[in-house]
Amino acid sequence: MTTVTSTRATYHQANKSLPAKEAFTWLKEGWQLFIKAPFKLLGLSFVTLFAAGLIQALAGPIGLGISKWVGPLLATVMWLAIANLAENNKLRLSGGTLRSWTNVALWSCTGPVIAWIQFQIGAMLMGADSVAALANGVVVDVPAWKVGLMMGSATPINLLLLFVPMLLILKHRSIPASFTNSIAAVVGAYKPMLIIGALIFLTVALAPYTFALSGLVFGPIVSCMCFVAYQRLFR
User: Fold this and answer.
1) Residue in 16, 88, 29, 78 with CA at minimum distance from that of residue 52
2) CA separation (Å) from 109 to 38, 62, 102, 217?
């Protein structure tokens, strides 16, 4: 294990020999964390998904961009709740400083950018008109697998940036340091992280088949698994 230190952040980066099966250890420990407060986590998952969807539905096309910006903020709230559950055995939303939340708000600007990339991939799969209709909440007769693939296409980027919000809100790191450290940790532990990436992709890509229940139900479990990974890769 290699310790990487800078003026901005300090973390322990697992070397490339970390086996893929480590991901299943994280999954087991993540499940144990989830069952400490399963209904509260599911309820919080529902509230965050509903809030993002409501913003998108009420404000029309502008709401889409706003919801994609709010999404990472709401995800950070989930991370904070899980962190409090892991450390205090209580699901609380308190934590962070004004500066760290400001950094989270700035980092959340990546949400619309990532969504734009998804829509470009969707346009290649389904055509620009179909994607525009979907973005405006219009039901379009397109294969569910194409919608799922479009939604899951951002998984590689999201995987590399997975630990950014936790570093921002829990360790109060700067945005550049959080980006660098997150990418380095994911690459350094690429074998188990690829399994996490596959689970994230399936959770998102199956949403069109499950009326978003895959994200609602499995999202908190995968999030708990990712938090365990964060605990193991960072100190």
Assistant:
1) 78
2) 30, 14, 11, 26
